[in-house]
Amino acid sequence: MLIDRIWYTSRHPLSFLLRPLSWLFAALGTLRRALFRTGLKESVRLPVPVIVVGNITAGGTGKTPLTIYLAKNLQALGYHPGIISRGYGGKAKAPLCVSSETDPRLSGDEPILLARASKVPVYVFKDRAAAGLALLAAHPEVDVLLCDDGLQHYRLQRDLELCVVDGARGFGNGALIPAGPLREPVTRLGKLDAVIVNGAGLPVEHAHSFQMSLVPGDFYSLVGAAPTLWHGLRVAAVCGIGNPARFFNSLKALGIVFTEHAFPDHHLFSADDLPDADVIVVTEKDAVKLAALADVRIWVLPVSASLTPDLASWLSNKLALIAQPLASRVQKNT
Q: Which amino acid positions bind ATP, per UniProt (predicted)?
């Protein structure tokens, strides 16, 4: 894709042509943060701790598997987490409770995967603070909220900020959108509570840094077909995620020979998008949108996050320090 060549090629000429727009993007971001900091734009404090899981680059870095990891491990530690998300690409007009049966056109694809894999309440809305309030009203047992991809959503106040960085692609050419992939300058990392590097290749200096790897699980059929051997069959890999190369590299590491078919992130698939192949392998995120096709050729590769050192235990210790009685939390009107 052209945008990847611009963002991840050193000194690409089109990147320099786009720098004035990057300066404008930076100025608008600075102004927006100042408006929230001074109270000219209202922010909302929710009555439970809020943990934001985000990134400072555009495109996929691994936020979704990390959020699932956190939800599962916080449950194991005795917490009752909930998840809120913007629901990118969804058309919800009000805070929406998401389940595995929700139409991805309403909620977006990632929230359905979050609800299916984490087994915790998931609500989406473009105003994440409103989504959080709706979730807490419906699930008063929830005592900590995970905000998926909300690092730049300053309307929602947060107690902890976690940033996921792509270990392979890093920060590209180091420029802000649209000249580069950065949503915020790299200096933003120093203000975060923790940095999680997904994959090897990028050293990040931070007081609290963690290494994440995505561990492939067992392939499963989208329609529940019995396992079969693929030897001699034509295999195609189809994905619409922020970093298709990560999925393709995972398949290559498993020794699978296939043709690559990459689509834009959050692509809504139709039957016409599926290639002529005997076997089609997809990500769990894409399986959410392909479920309606009920194609027996489609097989899904699940992945799970593994963290070193133990991020969940570190997070639990941080939560113990910041936890306050519900009555002492200040909630502003929305």
A: 57-64
Answer yes or no: is 63 a known binding residue. yes
161 vs 41, 53, 313, CA distance in Å? Answer: 20, 6, 16
Tell me whether residue 64 is annotated as binding: yes
Q: Are strands 144-148 and 50-54 parallel, antiparallel or unpaired?
A: parallel
**Global pTM exceeds 0.70:** yes
Q: What distance lies between CA 124 and its chain's CA centroid?
A: 13
Q: 61: annotated binding-site residue?
A: yes
Q: What is the block-wise mean pLDDT of the chain (334 residues), using blocks of 10 residues? A: 88 94 96 94 95 93 95 97 93 94 92 95 96 98 95 94 94 96 95 94 88 95 88 94 92 95 91 95 94 90 95 94 58 45
The annotation status of 60 as a binding-site residue, yes or no, is yes
Cβ contacts of residue 251 below 8 Å, gap of 6+?
A: 237, 258, 281, 301
What's 13-213+307-328's CATH class?
Answer: alpha beta
Instruction: Confirm or deny that 190 is annotated as ligand binding.
Output: no
Residues 6+ apart with CB under 8 A from 249: none
